[in-house]
Amino acid sequence: MTDKTKNNSLNITAVDSSSLVDKVEQTLIDLLISEKLNPGDQIPKELELTEMLGVSRTVIREALNRLKTIGLIESTKRKGSTIKSPDLLFLLKKSLIPNILDQATLKDIFELRLVIEIGMSDLIYNRATPEDIAELEQIVATEPDSSKEVLFDVDHEIKFHGKLYQISGNHTLIDFQTILLPAFRYVYDSGMIKSPDHDSKWVSHQDLVKILKDGNANKFRNAMRKHLDRHFKGYFK
Amino acid sequence: MTDKTKNNSLNITAVDSSSLVDKVEQTLIDLLISEKLNPGDQIPKELELTEMLGVSRTVIREALNRLKTIGLIESTKRKGSTIKSPDLLFLLKKSLIPNILDQATLKDIFELRLVIEIGMSDLIYNRATPEDIAELEQIVATEPDSSKEVLFDVDHEIKFHGKLYQISGNHTLIDFQTILLPAFRYVYDSGMIKSPDHDSKWVSHQDLVKILKDGNANKFRNAMRKHLDRHFKGYFK
DNA sequence: TTATTGGATTATGTCATACATAATGCGTTT
DNA sequence: AAACGCATTATGTATGACATAATCCAATAA
C-alpha cells in the first residue's frame, strides 16, 4: 500500500516495449549497414547469431525471417543466408490491398499517379520509338467513341496509359504502375473520381499521340497535363 | 536398394519448392482479401490456425510474422492479431539501404525523382501559401553563390526541394522523399551525376520562386523542367 | 455502493530440443 | 575416371514448456 500508484509517479524513463525480435531485427539491419556488405555476402549462421546475441534460435529465426520478407536476405539449406539486393516494389505489391487501405492513402496514391504521368512525359517523348507510336495509334483506333460521353472505359484507359509507362523505359516506374493498378481501378470503381466532363481544352488520347509524333517535349508535357485535367479538377476548385 | 533413382523418372509435374511458410503466408493473404476484412477486424488465434491449416504453430507464427513485417496485421498479447491499414512506405524505408541496391535500381530511383518533381509542379502551384513562398525565399536567400560554379551543395539542394515536397501536401509523396533521400545523397556522392553546367537557359532556385509567385501553372511546370535539365542531360544526349 | 486489489484466464512471446530435408563434399567401388 | 553411397552441415518443421502482457471477475476494503 505504500506507493503502488506507479502511474502517477514521475521521472519515468519510457521503457521500450519492443519485443526481443524487434531488437534483434534492428541489430541485424545495423550490422548490414555498418559492415558495408554487398549482395552475395554471407551472414553468420543462425546458431552463431544465437551465441553472438544471446537469444534463442527462435528469436533469431523470426528476425531473419523478417529480413527475408523485406527482401534483404535469402536463405538456402546448407549454405546459410546471403545478402540480396532487395526488390523494392515486390514489397508494395504484397501490402497493397486496396480494400484495406484507408481513403486518405488511396487519394494520395491516385494523386501520385497524376504526378507521375505528367512528370513521365519527358521520358516518353525522348524514348518513344516509331513502333511505340504505331502501337499507340493502334490503341486509340480501337477506342470507344469519346465524343459521346459514354461510360468511362477503365480498361481502355489502363491500356493506353499502361503503354505510356512501358515507353518510359524506367523499370521501377513500370513495376510501380502494375502495382498501383488495383488501387487505380478501385478508385475508379468506387466513384471517388467523377466521370469526364470534357471542356473545350480537352486533350484526347488521339491528340496526345499526334503531339507525341509531331510536337516537341514541352508541348507533349503540357498536353498531358491538360489530358489529366479533369482529375485535377477534383482537387483544385 | 530397389529403385532409388527417383531423379531419372520422367513425367515430373514441377514440384513447387516453396516452403510451408510460403504457402501458409499466401493462404492467409488470400483470406484477408476474400473475406473483405477491414482494419481492426480480428483474425483467428495461432492455435486455431494451427488446427485449421494442419501445420505446426511454428509455421503459423512465421507466416504471421511476415504479415506483421509487411504491415498487414499487428498483434497484442491476449487479444490476438488484428488487421491493420498498412503504411506502404514504411517497408521501403527499411529495405532501402543504398549500398546494397544495384546501380540500375539506383538510376531508376533517381530518374523517378525527376519525374515526380516535374509532375508535382501542379500540386505545388495550386497549394503554395504566401507563407510557403516566404519560406522558399528565405531558403534561397541563404543559398551559396551559384554563379561561382562552386561545389554542388547537396544539403542546400535537399533543403529547397524538400520544402517543395512539403508544399505538395501529399503525405505519401512527402514520405517518399524522406525515404528516397539516402538514395539521392548516395547518387550525388558517388559521382554518378555530373556537376552542374549552367547553360543560358538555366533556371535557378531563385527563378523558380519568382515564377511560383508571379507566373502561372504552366510556366512553373516548364520552369521546373528546365531547372532539372542538367540531370536529364545525362540520360538523353 | 464504489473503488481497489489480487488472482485466474487467455493468447502471444520466448526458450529448448529433436528430427526432417536439401545441398555439398568426400571417399569407395566398379 | 565416373558413379554411387555416406557423412556433414545449416536451414526447415514439429512439439512441449514456460514467460509475459492484457483482460475479466470476484473478493475485499473504504
Automatic annotation (TrEMBL), chains A, B:
Pfam families: FCD, GntR. Keywords: DNA-binding, Transcription, Transcription regulation. InterPro entries: GntR_C (IPR011711), TF_FadR/GntR_C (IPR008920), Tscrpt_reg_HTH_GntR (IPR000524), WH-like_DNA-bd_sf (IPR036388), WH_DNA-bd_sf (IPR036390). CDD domains: WHTH_GntR. SUPFAM superfamilies: GntR ligand-binding domain-like, Winged helix' DNA-binding domain. Residues 18-86 form the HTH gntR-type domain. The keyword Transcription applies. The keyword Metal-binding does not apply. This is FadR family transcriptional regulator. The lineage of its organism: Bacteria, Pseudomonadati, Bacteroidota, Bacteroidia, Marinilabiliales. GO terms for molecular function: DNA binding; DNA-binding transcription factor activity. Gene3D superfamilies: GntR ligand-binding domain-like, Winged helix-like DNA-binding domain superfamily/Winged helix DNA-binding domain.
